[in-house]
What does this fold into?
Amino acid sequence: MKISGKTRVVGIIGSPVGHSLSPAMQNAAIDELGIEYVYVPFPVEPDFLGQAVEGLRRLGIWGFNVTIPHKSTVIPFLDRISPEAELCGAVNTVCREGELLVGYNTDGAGFLASLREDLGHEPCGSSLLLLGAGGAARAAIVALAAAGAARIVIANRTRERGAALVERFQSVFPAVRFVISSLVAEELGGHLREADLLVNTTSVGMNGTSFECLPLSELRSTGKVYDMVYVPAETPLLATAKARGLAAANGLGMLAAQGAAAFSLWTGREAPSAVMRRKLRDELEK
It folds into this structure.
């Protein structure tokens, strides 16, 4: 990696950021293309977010990713956000455009790219069951609805959160049939029988946890399963899906693809996606 007075600095802000795989992934892409960029982590506590963004602006930082807990709270400190970020209510990538800091959300694009590459799934016209109603679910819903999904069931522990998402998105995507569900097995079973794709947008699956209420046997044999969790590489949900012979994938592809989209926004270059994904795998195997 070449560092000079012309090197453009990009990075990631969050709290914590020490665990982030983005520096390794992005710097591998930078090295592959031989461009004068460097990607560094910036730990930023919530109380200092506004000051940190202003500091990044004044230092001439070329762009940065945004991770937990700042994806929504960073918005007031930016000059403009993209339509996708506005719909999601969250920003994960910021670009310097002239004197402005502009926020984007590449999570949805990364999710769709991974669905297509890892599962061969095209959302247009399909019926989907989403587990969870948090930020990852919002990004997935926006991406799936924009891609032409016919039916999206939002299953969450508290129905109120699911209802809030339906209220947020139904008028924006009137062609999509939105349905609210609890996480009760009987109700989930009915939705699984109609689903082409099951998506877990929650943290369930980390540390070996599982959805004990999920009757996966009700999912048709052509159904597919996507788990946004990527550590461990095979969650209990994915293990069960594969044991039933279902097509299944974890969230590593989404992580790589959203990073590739951010890379292209900053550099104007096509990201070396295969290199980025390979670097992520290497880091996770350490």
